[in-house]
């Protein structure tokens, strides 16, 4: 028998595989209980201090890469106005303001990779 550690979608598994048997098919691998998960990667940019943080978060609807930032901190925006351009699945997606307000923080930079649900900016 041989033991392997395999990572699938960020989950770590310890797997034991039996040696092949001559004249027959190879036996199926049997998975042991999942090993302790590894720590999630750190956020690419630290969030602003709590005093400067806005009350309305603007989040990424899907994972992707930041291609452009169309608004600046302190800028007034209206509901539906583009704030950030996110590339996902080779398409450019405009991330828009969920409501009228003022940009309190921009939490990403051009070139950053973000996960779904990541806070990209906040509004007041």
Question: Can you describe what's shown?
Answer:
Residues 38-51 have low confidence and may be disordered. The chain is built from no helices and eleven strands. Helices cover 0% and strands 46% of the residues. It is mainly β and 124 residues long. The strands form three sheets. Strands 4-11-9-6 form a four-stranded antiparallel beta sheet, with no helix packed on it. Strands 8-7-5-10 form a four-stranded antiparallel beta sheet, with no helix packed on it.
Query: If you compute it from the alpha carbons, what radius of gyration comes out, rounded to the nearest whole angstrom?
Result: 22 Å
Biggest sheet features:
4 strands, antiparallel
Low-confidence stretches: 38-51
In what order do the strands lie side by side in the largest sheet? 4-11-9-6
Short description:
With 124 residues, the protein is mostly beta strands. It contains no helices and eleven strands.
Present the secondary structure layout.
Layout lengths: L1 E7 L2 E7 L12 E5 L21 E4 L4 E6 L6 E2 L4 E7 L2 E6 L4 E6 L6 E2 L4 E5 L1
Antiparallel strand pairs: 1-2, 2-3, 4-11, 5-7, 5-10, 6-9, 7-8, 9-11
What key phrases describe this protein's structure?
4-stranded antiparallel beta sheet; 11 strands; elongated; 124 residues; single chain; mainly beta
């Amino acid at each position: 028998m041989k033991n392997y550690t395999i990572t699938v979608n960020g989950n770590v598994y310890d797997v034991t595989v039996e040696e092949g048997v001559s004249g027959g098919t190879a036996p199926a691998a049997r998975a042991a209980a999942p090993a302790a998960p590894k720590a999630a990667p750190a956020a690419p940019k630290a969030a602003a201090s709590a005093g400067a943080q806005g009350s309305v978060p603007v989040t990424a609807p899907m994972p992707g890469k930041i291609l452009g930032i169309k608004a600046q901190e302190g800028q007034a925006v209206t509901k539906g106005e583009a704030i950030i351009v996110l590339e996902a699945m080779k398409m450019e997606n405009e991330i828009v303001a969920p409501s009228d307000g003022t940009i309190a923080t921009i939490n990403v930079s051009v070139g950053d990779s973000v996960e779904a649900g990541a806070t990209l900016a906040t509004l007041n």
